[in-house]
Design brief:
Helix content is 65%, strand content 0%. The chain is an all-alpha fold and 335 residues long. The radius of gyration is 37 Å and the shape is elongated.
């Protein structure tokens, strides 16, 4: 209080704000959190946008790829056609079987029946809900791929038989003291002669492969789907079935007969017992055995396909890509 009794007037109040332009730690932390949330909200749609962009680009180019692949197919450039048809297998939900069918067809034309069979099996599975005519187209091409695979295996067997004949002639000439082709007898030049029986065994193995391929081709033609074919196509199918049966028989006849001195007794049967169905005619028994063998070989072919898929999944860590699009611009042909 002043000397005259009047209290002093209070001065103006100035809050302690620190240095000009600075914020409190609490406000700075809140602002930082808000900025992070905004950044996250902006980044969240980015993967979806990228996926949509990639998918859109893929779909936009599918007709271009199909047209180019069809052109290469029509130009008899089947390897290039197969490569481009294969690009349609992934990221496609429209008629996914077509890409596998087109690729398998082109692969067969290029001579790669092993890959063609795999792709056509996949096409048949993907076309499970399609019209019977669609499945019939696939199985006809699949059957033809098995048949041409059998033709290749038959050629390999015949080559081994030709080598065996040439080797036996060379060995006979050597034993008679005549000139002979040393390379046929000892191709490695290490003094070890080739055994003609080894070549016979190789030929027998390839003939057995061919018999199995022809039997599977016949079995595929009997799958459901081709019951409503036009009459002309039914006749062609019957002719193809007969041709496959003839090829099976030829491959079977080319294999040596089992050794009669070592007969095998079926499990559960004693020597001298008459097996069930002994009253059947020889022709009926032969037909029953043939049908049973066909079913077994078809099952083995399916098992091989399933094993290939499992190996694919184990190696790549996921399912095989499914999909495909387009009909290849009309290049999906039956042969």
């Amino acid at each position: 209080m002043s000397d005259n009794g009047v209290p002093p007037r209070p001065g103006p109040f100035f809050p302690q704000t620190g240095r000009p332009g600075t914020r409190s730690p609490q406000r700075a932390a809140m602002r930082s959190r808000r900025l992070r949330r905004r950044a996250l909200l902006l980044l969240l749609p980015v993967p979806l946008l990228v996926a949509a962009l990639v998918l859109g680009t893929k779909l936009a180019f599918l007709p271009v790829i199909a047209s180019y692949a069809s052109g290469r197919y029509d130009a008899n450039d089947y390897s290039e056609a197969a490569t481009n048809f294969g690009l349609q297998k992934t990221m496609n939900v429209v008629d996914p079987w077509k890409a596998w069918y087109n690729t398998g067809t082109a692969l067969h034309r290029s001579g790669d029946d092993v890959a063609a069979i795999s792709d056509l099996h996949r096409a048949y599975d993907l076309a499970e809900d399609e019209a019977p005519a669609v499945r019939c187209r696939i199985q006809v091409n699949l059957s033809i791929s098995y048949e041409t695979s059998g033709d290749f295996e038959t050629t390999m067997a015949e080559d081994y038989l030709a080598q065996k004949v040439a080797l036996e002639e060379a060995l006979a000439a050597r034993d008679a003291g005549q000139d002979y082709n040393q390379f046929l007898v000892d191709p490695e030049g290490d003094g070890t002669d080739i055994d003609p029986q080894d070549l016979q065994d190789e030929a027998t193995t390839w003939f057995s492969y061919a018999e199995r391929s022809y039997a599977t081709a016949e079995q595929v033609r009997g799958w459901p789907g081709c019951e409503d074919q036009p009459e002309q196509e039914k006749e062609q199918n019957q002719e193809s079935t007969q041709r496959l049966q003839d090829k099976q028989q030829q491959a079977r006849d080319a294999q040596p007969e089992p050794d009669p001195t070592a007969p095998e007794t079926p499990d559960g049967e004693e020597e001298g017992e008459t097996p069930d169905g002994a009253d059947q005619s020889e022709q009926e028994r032969a037909e029953a055995e043939r049908q049973e063998k066909l079913q077994q070989q078809d099952s083995e072919a399916r098992d091989d396909e399933e094993q290939s898929r499992q190996e694919y999944e184990e190696y790549f860590g996921g399912d095989e890509p499914t999909g495909g699009a387009g009909d290849g611009g009309g290049s999906s042909k039956n042969w």
